[in-house]
């Protein structure tokens, strides 16, 4: 009689990095539920409270950032009505015929803004093409409440952005809801940067000078449903295995499920949707500045249902031109800096260029 052994099988995924390809061992077992400390729920209710309250949030975030780099936040202060409205706008945009969406094709704008069609991206070339379509906007000073009193001069890129907004102006309320949701997440992200400084034992204001004109990229993503979810041969990824590039991501996801995070042991875990939360994950640039103390963790999305899945990520990076070094609190004799200083803009640009070079 055969004895059952608890042997686990693993495959390998490849990730693109500026230091060459990196490989991760990945269990072939179906995703499991996370342990409580793998993707903890963190209460931000006191983020505007006194220093002791902010330090308590920082302590919780530090533990999560050093473990998987993924956590949920609640009591984040962004109104559910605004989120619902943004979601309806995203759905209205994606429900349009393809030629209406192509009018704002990202090929016409700088920095990947605008529309990317289904199957036009492949974030991991050892997996399938990404089965998703997206609408993206980037940081725009004229939308930033921090600079409300400093009128900006029109530039060629602001003129091309006007064209982008004109291309969606037939969708009532689209621009207003999209910009307001972007502004509120930028505001929350700036507060989180100060909490992250505390979590790294730095002065709370340590990063203030590098978030005056930050990377602040907001996406609407639509993952089309699959025709037959029981068809196990059809395993197109929604978005392939990857790490995020800049400092951290604030992600709103609908109730579909499908977001999976790679555990420290190489098993997929489900970052299941939790009403009223954002999923936050540390990204590569912050891992780098923390000398690998904070973790930028591999994740992916599968939409294995007939219905559409929608998500709305917001990626925060530091000012594109500010050169940043590994922070002093993460360096000592036993832990020399592992990385050279670099700006987040160059880091982001080179990573994106690497991905597109691979495709040509
Ligand atoms: O759609 C999601 O839930 C996650 C998307 C994501 O990981 C990304 O856009 O980097
Ligand atoms: Fe991601």
Give a short summary of the structure:
The protein has one domain: Jelly Rolls (Sandwich). 27% of the residues lie in helices and 21% in strands.
Question: How would you describe the overall organization of this protein?
Answer:
The protein has 360 residues and is of the alpha+beta class. It has a single domain, classed as B-lactam Antibiotic, Isopenicillin N Synthase, Chain (Jelly Rolls), CATH 2.60.120. 27% of the residues lie in helices and 21% in strands. The radius of gyration is 20 Å and the shape is globular. The termini are far apart. The N terminus is likely disordered. The structure holds 2-oxoglutaric acid and fe (ii) ion (FE2). 2-oxoglutaric acid binds next to strand 9, strand 13 and strand 14.
Count of domains: 1
How much of the residues is beta strand, in percent? 15-25%
State the strand order across the main sheet: 3-4-12-9-14-7-6-5
Our Rg estimate from Cα atoms comes to 20 Å
Number of helix segments?
A: 7
Keywords:
alpha+beta; binds 2-oxoglutaric acid; Jelly Rolls; four-stranded antiparallel β-sheet; 21% strand; globular; DIOX_N; 360 residues; 7 helices; eight-stranded mixed β-sheet; oxidoreductase activity; binds fe (ii) ion
Topology:
Blueprint: E1 10-15, E2 22-27, E3 41-43, H1 51-67, E4 70-74, H2 80-94, H3 98-102, E5 114-116, E6 133-137, H4 156-166, H5 174-199, E7 215-223, E8 239-242, E9 248-253, E10 259-262, E11 268-270, E12 278-282, H6 284-289, E13 299-301, E14 309-317, E15 323-324, E16 342-343, H7 344-359
Parallel strand pairs: 3-4
Antiparallel strand pairs: 1-2, 4-12, 5-6, 6-7, 7-14, 8-13, 9-12, 9-14, 10-11, 10-13, 15-16
Helix pairs in contact: 1-5, 2-5
Fe (ii) ion is lined by residues 242, 244, 299.
């Amino acid at each position: 009689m055969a004895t059952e052994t608890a042997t686990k099988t693993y495959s390998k995924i490849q990730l693109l990095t500026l230091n060459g390809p990196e490989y991760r061992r990945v269990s072939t077992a179906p995703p499991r539920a996370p342990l409580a400390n793998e993707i903890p729920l963190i209460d931000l209710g006191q983020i505007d409270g006194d220093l002791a309250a902010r330090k308590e949030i920082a302590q919780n975030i530090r533990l999560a950032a050093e473990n998987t780099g993924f956590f949920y936040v609640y009591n984040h202060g962004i109104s559910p009505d605004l989120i619902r409205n943004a979601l309806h706008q995203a759905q209205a945009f994606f429900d349009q015929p393809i030629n209406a969406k192509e009018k704002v094709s990202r090929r016409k704008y700088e920095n990947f803004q605008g529309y990317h069609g289904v199957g036009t991206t492949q974030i991991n070339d050892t997996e399938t093409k990404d089965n998703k379509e997206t609408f993206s906007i980037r940081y725009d000073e004229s939308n930033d409440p921090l600079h409300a009193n400093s009128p900006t001069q029109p530039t060629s890129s602001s003129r091309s952005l006007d064209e982008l907004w004109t291309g969606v102006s037939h969708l009532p309320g689209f621009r207003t809801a999209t910009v307001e949701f972007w502004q509120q997440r930028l505001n929350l992200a700036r507060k989180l940067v100060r909490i992250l400084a505390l979590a790294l034992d730095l002065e709370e204001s340590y990063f203030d000078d590098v978030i005056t004109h930050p990377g602040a990229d907001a996406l609407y993503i639509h993952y089309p449903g699959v025709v037959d979810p029981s068809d196990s041969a059809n395993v197109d990824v929604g978005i392939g295995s990857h790490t995020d590039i800049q400092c951290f991501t604030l992600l709103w996801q609908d109730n579909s499920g499908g977001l999976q995070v790679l555990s420290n042991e190489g098993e997929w875990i489900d970052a299941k949707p939790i009403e009223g939360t954002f999923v936050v994950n540390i990204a590569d640039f912050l891992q780098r500045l923390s000398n690998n103390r904070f973790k930028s963790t591999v994740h992916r999305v599968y939409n294995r249902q007939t219905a559409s899945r929608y998500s709305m990520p917001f990626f925060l990076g530091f000012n594109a031109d500010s050169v940043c070094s590994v922070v002093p609190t993460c360096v000592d004799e036993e832990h020399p800096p592992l990385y050279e200083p670099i700006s987040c803009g160059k880091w982001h640009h080179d990573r994106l260029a690497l991905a597109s070079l691979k495709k040509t």
